[in-house]
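Model it.
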Amino acid sequence: MKKILFFAVTLAAFAFIAPGDPLTKKERKEAIDLLKSTENDLLQEVQGLSEAQLKYKPAPDRWSVEECVIHIATTEQMLWETTDAGIKQAANPEKRSEIKMTDEQVVKGVEDRSQKRQTFDKLKPENSPFKSMTEALESLKNSREKLTSYVKSTPDDLRSHVLTMPFGSLDSYQMILFIAAHNARHTLQIKEVKADPGFPKS
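Modeled.
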């Protein structure tokens, strides 16, 4: 009788054990830190700029500070919608073998401004639903707050949802890193615009 009781109690105990956290504390912290730091860096770079400074273009084929911000917000919205849709699909961990980049390589590769790329037409500033930097920043702040909160507490197994993108396969956690790194990439572009000799003094 005692053995049966012990066995029953043991089974009950196992039934109440929470499943393992799909993300480590380190992964959560690194993603949250990157999301926060890249947002703060961007806000710092655009703070206090005049209308002339926001709209200054070093050349006809280069973006202004305002256009960079609009592109960041537009792309972030698209990337998260894509990532969220992937998370809501059935997990596909068998596709992890298609991932060729580590988390660090994703971040460094996206941030690297030595390799210039042409964006899709729908992500160009002139095609964005945001018509001013104010609109774009408001969207960015809201989406970043929601995304940070999501990363803090989500029970979703982001590593088991792999997305096939034009630039390669990434898991959903890496897509979140990509979002933050894309922000950093264009914040560097903003710094380049501000460093141009013709950038207005005020």
